Amino acid sequence: MKAIVCTRLGLPRLARYKDVPQPVPGDGQVLIEVHASSVTFSNLFLFMKRWWPFRLALGGQLIPKSGIPGTDVTGRVAALGKNASKFKAGDAVYGDLSSAGKGALAEYVCAPESILAPKPANLSFEEAAAVPESALVALRGLRDKGQVQKGQKVLVYGASGGIGTFAVQIAKHLGAEVTGVCSTRNVDLVRSLGADRVIDYTKEDFTRSGERYDLVFAARNTRPVSEIGRVLGPGGVYVSTMGPSITRGFQEFFIGPRALKKQGKRVSVIDVDYDWGDLVLIKELIEAGRVRPVIDRRYPLSQAPEAFRYYGGGHARGKVVISVRPDG
Ligand SMILES: NC(=O)c1ccc[n+]([C@@H]2O[C@H](COP(=O)([O-])OP(=O)(O)OC[C@H]3O[C@@H](n4cnc5c(N)ncnc54)[C@H](OP(=O)(O)O)[C@@H]3O)[C@@H](O)[C@H]2O)c1
Q: How far is the CA of 89 from the centre of ligand 1 (A)?
């Protein structure tokens, strides 16, 4: 089968499109005929050189075991391993393989059936591939880390990116009054996702408006914790994805919590300790029309390194999808 292989750190430069043996499903696993994947941060975290300090700090490997990147996956079940009974051959599934060896940038991948869910019925495979990691991060950040309550004021910084577009919609679903921050060209997009107010960061600095929020969700952590602290009301929470800035990530993890605690506020960083059952919840929100993926660009599997280069520029509008078997 064809796959993107990256056996040395250096995605996307050292990634190669080549033939590799098709995997065989193990105990409790299914073999997925992959239709699409998407560019996710977990891939960059494991396969890019510049993230090595974080990998070491978190006890991770320097070189990933699986040479095939790809965490978001959607496709059809092609075969069942021993003791796998949740799905049958032909079922359309979607999931996030960040804790399961990755490998979705290939024509076939094996995954534990326990971390997969049925694909949202109203989405194409390419649309469904845009969902798992970004929607799970947004949900975990807002509901679990931020504990958003109905009527609270939430600001989403980086509202037009892969995670931000889900965060705006999920915060609205949770009953918050949502302000999205993005640049001029994305104002209409963020408004169309349900934001009550949109701040164009090229014209207005939200940290100087005098407005206070119960929760700031940073899909992009480019502002210092001290500035975010200024816009949080009493008992406010700063929830960060810890990216893309590594130095700010360290600040948010080690120094920020103590600094904000003195003001009666809190910093919470998002981890990938997902509840896989949430994929079913997200499927239901999508099927009910409460949440939709936003896709910026689609690339064929052979051009996946180009997709990573584009995402790495930091200005994708929603998600960048990698199509393995293009939607018909
Ligand atoms: N903690 C975790 O488990 C976890 C998991 C996944 C991802 N992450 C982190 O989450 C971050 C966000 O991921 P993502 O996929 O949403 O990123 P992304 O898609 O790269 O975000 C791109 C968006 O950010 C906007 N943007 C760029 N500069 C901005 C600025 N100065 N102010 C406001 N918006 C700005 C861009 O809009 P314009 O073009 O209009 O500027 C673009 O729409 C990643 O950097 C990653 O490190 C963390």
A: 36
